[in-house]
Write a structure and sequence with these properties.
Number of helices: 5
Structural class: alpha+beta
Radius of gyration: 25 Å
Strand order of the largest sheet: 3-2-1-4-5-6
Shape: elongated
Amino acid sequence: MQTQTVDKARIHATERELVPRLFVRAMFGMVMLCLVMVSAYRWLDGPVQYTAPDSPVVIEKTLFLEGAMSGAAKVFAEDGTVIAEYAPEEGGFISGMWRVLQRERTKARVDLNGPVIVRARENNRLEIFDPSTGWGADLMGFGADNSAAFARLLK
């Protein structure tokens, strides 16, 4: 019987008992302050500092990716020869990149089977670039194992 009264008390607790109004206002104030600061920085043409440092390309290969929702993937050279074939347990990242490319190409309304360029740069960074859409990604941000999957394709 006493449990029911405790439960009712929790259900009907006032706002003041859950989170003090001062904390809620402070949180929204901080969010608004961050929004104003970032907006002002971008309006004043502040440089974008989150991009990878640019350095000369050491190795560059044009490849064709083919993937499946299961995680299986195939990688082809420009002449159509199979460079690598991955089972569903092995090709998850490459297949995932293929899905990203499919989405970007669908949005851009370009050929879904176009080539991608994989580049190794002098500063030991890898990137993938889709010339048909202009989309690209620094592969180092996906972790060492995932970027190593593309590094093996450059050998």
